[in-house]
Amino acid sequence: MSKPEVIRAPKGLENVIVDRTGLSGVDPKGEHTIYRGFMIEDLGENASFEEAAYLFLYGKLPTRSELYYFSERLANLREIPDGLYEAFKQLPDTAHPMHIAQMGIAYMGTFDGKAMDLSEELLYRRAEGIIAKMPTIFANGYRISRGQEPVRPDPTLSHAVDALRMIIGRRPREEEARLFEVTLVLYMDHGFNASTFTTRVIASTLSDMYAAVAGGIGALKGPLHGAANERAMEMLLDVGLGDIDGARMYLEKKLASKERIMGFGHRVYKVRDPRVSVAKKYLSRYAEENEEARKLYEMCDYIEKLMWERKKLPANIDFYTGPIYHLLGIPIIMYTPVFAMSRTVGWVSHYIEQVTNNRLIRPKAEYVGPMGLKYTPIDERG
């Protein structure tokens, strides 16, 4: 029997298709993001968080009654155990919210006595619980570790409104809540990105959903994946919000020294990130009645056009979510956690898809180290 052919993949698995998914993807031309058959522009413009989350989990947009009961379940599952609030008090004020969330989701796993039961009913119940609790874990883990009082979830509010309320400590206005909700829909899933692939690798071992989501959080924490919106906002603050001349000089200097400009370029999108058009549209609407937002929007639009003119690099979604979160009063260190709150929907959906049609993900590596070395007793080693 002959050995199976060894397939050499490029480093980073760029342009390698490793599996099939019915959840999300990009069309063959790399121009459109697709969620369960729907274009992101359509869902981003019109769908609530709950509608999009239901679509990912159950494969269709909900009816009015399905949406009502799904929203009720999420609202009533949003609270976390008192013991977790106490655990947050033991954390140093330097703890990163992503580390806190990994601890929090692992803690929740210890309360699920059937975490390894992969029956369909429990998979979906567990997924809904994780989606619901993630904002509470992120927001209050951060608040308590910084010496602030927790803001307990309010089951009378929608997912997006309550998540933003717990982060900023006040109930947001309607236009603020919708601006925030749009970013949650835009970030919800994106094919086999690094954190989703990490989640699926863990799922393929038939480990539990909590462990897989904790792995996704760890991958998203990396600056090459989830922290780009933080770096983009820090760049804008360095330039000076609304200072277009300053932005031009800043970019000229960075480009001359061949430094990377955060918020531009994408492994998948070479001409445009379709999520940007939705984020820009909502930011533009918000800017009509907010002077700071207007200046920030004009500055971002100018930088986006300059980067395309000079480097043919399109802005990605992170370049616009950073300014949106800044305007909403969200601390920069919480930008990636907000991303994770949304991407949790994708992670748990991919977990379910993986374990229901599973094969252990176990690629090969080519060993290129030394061979033939011999063990020597410790006293004889130089």
State the main characteristics.
382 residues, mainly alpha, Citrate Synthase, domain 1, Cytochrome p450-Terp, domain 2, 2 domains, 3-stranded antiparallel β-sheet, 16 helices, 3 strands, 2% strand, globular
Question: How many strands in all?
Answer: 3
Provide the CATH topology of the largest domain.
Citrate Synthase, domain 1
Give the overall average pLDDT: 93
Which structural class is indicated by helix and strand composition? mainly alpha
State the share of residues found in helices, binned by percent: 55-70%
Largest sheet: 3 strands, antiparallel
Low-confidence stretches: none
- The figure for the number of domains is 2
Annotated CATH homologous superfamily of the largest domain = Citrate Synthase, domain 1
Question: Which strand order spans the largest sheet, edge to edge or round the barrel?
Answer: 1-2-3
Order of helices and strands: EEEHHHHHHHHHHHHHHHH
Instruction: Examine the secondary-structure arrangement and name the CATH architecture of the largest domain.
Output: Orthogonal Bundle
CATH C-level category of the largest domain: Mainly Alpha
Radius of gyration over alpha carbons?
Answer: 22 Å
Head-to-tail CA distance between termini? 47 Å
Report the principal-axis shape: globular
Number of helices: 16
The fraction of residues in strands falls at under 5%
